[in-house]
Amino acid sequence: MSSILDLDLASARSALQKKEVSAVELTETYLSVMSSNDHLNCYITSTPEKALDMASKSDHRINSGDALPLDGIPIAIKDLFCTDGVLTTAGSHILNGFIPTYESSVTENLWEHGAVMLGKCNMDEFAMGSANTTSYFGAVENPWRSDDRQKSPLVPGGSSGGSASAVASRLALAATGTDTGGSIRQPGSFCGIVGLKPTYGRCSRWGTIAFASSLDQAGPLTRTVRDAAIMLKAMAGHDPKDSTSANLQVPDFESALTNDVRGLRIGVPREYLLDGMPSEIEKLLETGIEMLRTAGATIVDVSMPHTKFALPTYYIIAPAEASSNLARYDGVRYGLRIEGDNLDDMYEKTRSVGFGAEVKRRILIGTYVLSAGYYDAYYLKAQRVRSLIKQDFDLVFDNVDVLLTPTAPSDAFAIGENDDDPIKMYLNDIFTVPASLAGVPAISVPVGLSKNKLPLGLQIIGKMFDEELVLRVGGALEGMAGFKSRPAGGA
Amino acid sequence: MSLDKGTVKRVAQLARLRLDDEQLEKTAEELNKIFTWIEQLDEVDVSNIEPLASVTGHSLPERMDEVTDGNYPDRVLSNAPDRASNFFTVPKVVE
Amino acid sequence: MVQLLKGETGEWEIVIGLEVHAQVSSEAKLFSSAATKFGAEPNSQVSLVDAAMPGMLPVINKECVRQAIKTGLGINAKINLFSVFDRKNYFYPDLPQGYQISQFKQPIVGEGFLEIEVSDGAKKIGIERLHLEQDAGKSIHDQHPSRSFIDLNRSGVALMEIVSKPDIRSGEEAGAYLKKLRSIVRYLGTCDGNMQEGSLRCDVNVSVRKPGEELGTRCEIKNVNSIRFVQQAIEYEARRQIEIIEDGHLINQETRLFDPNRGETRSMRSKEEAHDYRYFPDPDLLPLKFDDALVQAIASDMPELPDAKRTRFIEEYELSEADATLLVEERETAEFYEEMAAGRDKKLSANWLGTELFGALNKEGLSLAESPITAESLGRLIELISDGTISGRIAKDVFVDMFESGEDALDIVERKGLTQISDAGAILELVESVISDNASKVAEFRNGKDKLFGFFVGQVMKKSQGKANPKLVNNLLKDKLG
Asked: What pTM was estimated for this model as a whole?
C-alpha cells in the first residue's frame, strides 16, 4: 500500500502545492489502484487519458505559480453528472451509449477549480436505491467486510454507492454524489466516510440527470469533514441556468471548522429513536450526545411529531416527479431504442427493456399517484404533509442550532439482502429523508463500529443554508470520535 | 384500497411500460403492499395546511429575452438512435 | 348574431367555445434562449433544453411574462399576481420532455371579456382564462413511407392559450371574436396574428341544444387555421350533431379534425385514447410572483385598443360605425387613416382609404405597408379635392397615376393641367355653347323631360375635359335652362 494514498484531500492539496508530489504522480497512483480493484465495481467508466491530461495541466499551473484551489486532486464523479464527451449512464441501460455534448455545472465548477477526473462512478439506476444493487452495470461492493465471514460481500449503500465505495477503498481522493432521500449520507455511513447533503439550491442541478427535482441535491463524499468543506466550496454556487439555484455567496466553509461547539444547542429528536432499532444504533447516538456535551454543547430533547410520516410522503413525491422526469427516455433523441411496429410499440419496448425493475416500480407508483382521481388523495396530500414536516424543522430550529440523529438504522448488509422487499429497502432512508423533504443541509460523520465491526455514522442536520455550522459540529464530532478504522478491502 | 391488475395495466400504459400477465400480477401485489404502507398518511390531519410549493421560498428568476442558444443541430442530433438528414425519426404516425 | 338551425324536430342553438393558441412575440423561447423565428432549417433553433437532454432545466423569459400580462389587460382580464407552472404529461414524439410546461390550476390571467360587433349589434363574449405554455415541435408524416420526421424548432416557443366561455352562438360570432382577438394582440404587439404560419391557431368546441335547455355534449375540432375554416367547421359540425341527435343517437365527446378540402370534420382516432395528463406543479420552476406595480407599469404603457379607437373615431371624426369598425380592425390601417386625415376632411379620407386605396391594393395583392401611396400623400389628394383644386372625378384619375408612379398628387395635377375650372365666366361659355348645340333637347327638357338635366351636365363636363367645377356647372345650367 502506497503511503501517497493515505493522504486525505487537504493533505494532498498541501503536498501538491509544496511540490512534494506531482499531480501526474498522484493521479497515476490512483489510476493504478483503480484498475487492480475492478471487482469492487466502483466505476462504470474510467477516464485515464483525461485524468492524466488534466493532471499535467495542474502540474503546469502549480509549477508556474498559478495553482487553482483543487489543482491535481483526483476525484470520482457519480455517473449522474453529465460530462462533455464522456459516456454518461445514470446506471441505466436506457441511456445506452449516451455521450453528452455538455458539462454539468457542478463538474464544470470542479474542473475550474483544478480537480482531476478519474472516472464515472457506479450508482443505483437513476439514483433509485439504497444498496447500489439496481445498477444496470452490476452491484458495487463495500470494501468493508463483516466480522461474520459468511456475510460477504456487503453493499456500500446507495444510491451513490460507487462514489462512497471508491472513497472508502482509496480509489479516489473524494467523489461527487447526489442525495434525494439519503443517497450521499446513507452510503457515507455504510462505508465509514463523510457524506454531505447541502441545502437544496446550494449546488446547481443543471446537467445532473434528474430523479426527483424538488429533492435532488449534489454533494461530496470524502474521508474527512475538512475535505467535505473543501469540495463543497468548489461544487457550490449560484447558477442562472437552474431556476431553483440559490442566489447566495458561497462561504469559505473550511474556515468554519473551528471545532468549537461550546454554547451550541443541539437537539435530539425523540422521534428518531425507533422501536426495534438495533441497540447499537441507540448506543452510538448516546456516544455522540456524550461527546458533544463534554465539548460544551447543550443537548436538548426535542420533538418533531411528523417525522414518521416523512418516508411515506417521500415515496409519493419522489416517484411522482421521477415518473415525469423519466418520460424523456423514449428512444427518439438519445440512448436506447428498440424498434417497434408503431410508435407506441417502440416506446413500450424501449422503456420496458431500458429501465430496471426498481425504476419501473417507481414510475408506476408516480404515474398512479398523479393520475385522475388519485392526485388529491396522494400527491396533494403528500405535499401538505411535506409542509408539516418542513414546519417541524422551522419550529425546532427556533430552539436549537443543529440536530443530532443516527444516519441509518443499521450497518451495511449483504448484497442481495432486502432486494425482494421494497419497503424494507426503503426504510434504510428513514433518518435521512426528513431533511431532504425540508431541504435543509445534513452531514453524516463516521463515529463508531457495529458489533460486526462495520462503520456507523451520525447525522448533523442544520438550518437552511447553514452548512457552516453543520460542518463545524460535524468536524468537532469527527475529532472526538477519532474514527481511524480502515476497511479490509480496497487499496 | 387495492390496485387490481386492470389498474396497473392502465397505469403502465400511461407510462409506456409493458408488463406481461405474470408481471402485472406481481406488480399489483407489490404496489398494494407499498400503498398499504403509504396509507399511514391517513392519520395526518392536513386541513388548513397548504401544499409545499418550494423549500427555499425564493421567487422565480427571469432571464432576458435574448437569443444566446441553439444553432447547433449537430449537437442536438449527435446521440440520435436514428435520423434522416437533420430530422429525428420515429415509426410513422397516422393521424 | 345567434343563429338557430332548423332540424326535423325544431330549432337548434349552437354553443361554441374557442381555445386560441397565440404565439407570443419574443426573440427567444419561453424557457430557453433559442430563437423563435419562423422557417429555419430543421432542428437549428433548438437548444439542449428544447431537445430535453438529460439534466436540462427551464428558465423563464421575462418578456413572455410581460406579453401575457399585456394581453390579459387587453382582454379586460384579471391579472393573477401569483401563478404556477404545471407539467402536462403525455407521450408524443414532438414533445421531447414527455410533458408540456403549461399552467393548469393557477394561470397568469383569469376572467375577462371581449366585445364583438355582429349584424344584430354588439355582444360581450366572456373569457375564461389566459395561460402561458410551451409549443410542441413538428411531426412531418409525408416524407418517408414508414417514418415520421421530427423537427423541434418550435419546441418550447411561448404560447398564450386564451380560452373563451361558451358564449358564442354562431359562425359569424366566432369569426368576429377571432378577428377582434387577433386585432387586439396585433395592436399590443404580443402576437403577430399570422394564421398561415401558425402564430394563431384555434381549437373549436361545438355542441348543440334546444334553446333554453342544458348544454349538450361537445366535440373539439383541433387546429383550425383560418377564420373561414372555423366558420365552415362550426356549420358542418353543428349539422352533423343535430342529425345524430335527431336520429336518436348520442354525441360522442371526442377530438375531431377539420378537412378544408372536403369542408368536413372527422374523428381523430389517434387521439381517442383516454387522456390522463397527470398535471402537477413543475418542480424545476418556482411559482411566478410579481407585484401590482409591474401590472400598473404595463397598463400605463398600453396603446389605444380597437374598441376605444372606434369610439373615438365615431365621436371625434363623426364617422359611421361601419367606417370606424373597418378602419380600426388593423392598427396599421387606423394609424394610416389618422395620419392622412389629420387636418383634412375625415369622412372623405375614410372613403378614399376604404374604397380607392384598399380597392387598388387588393387588386395588386399588396398590403397597406407595401402601398406605393403614403398616408401623407393620399392626404394631400384629399386636400386638393376639398379645396376645389380638382373634382372627385379627376381625383380618381390622379389616384391611378399616383398608385403607378408614387408621384405626388399636386405634381400630377400641375403637370397634366388638371386643375378644376371654377371660373364662372369660363363655365358659362361652355354652358351656353352646349345649350346652343342641343336646341331640340333643350326644348324637350323645358317640356318636362327632367331626366335630360344629367345629359347637359355630362356635355359641359366633357367639353371641359372633366375639369369644370361640377357644382358651378349645375348651378349655371339650372339658371340657363330654367
From this structure: 0.92
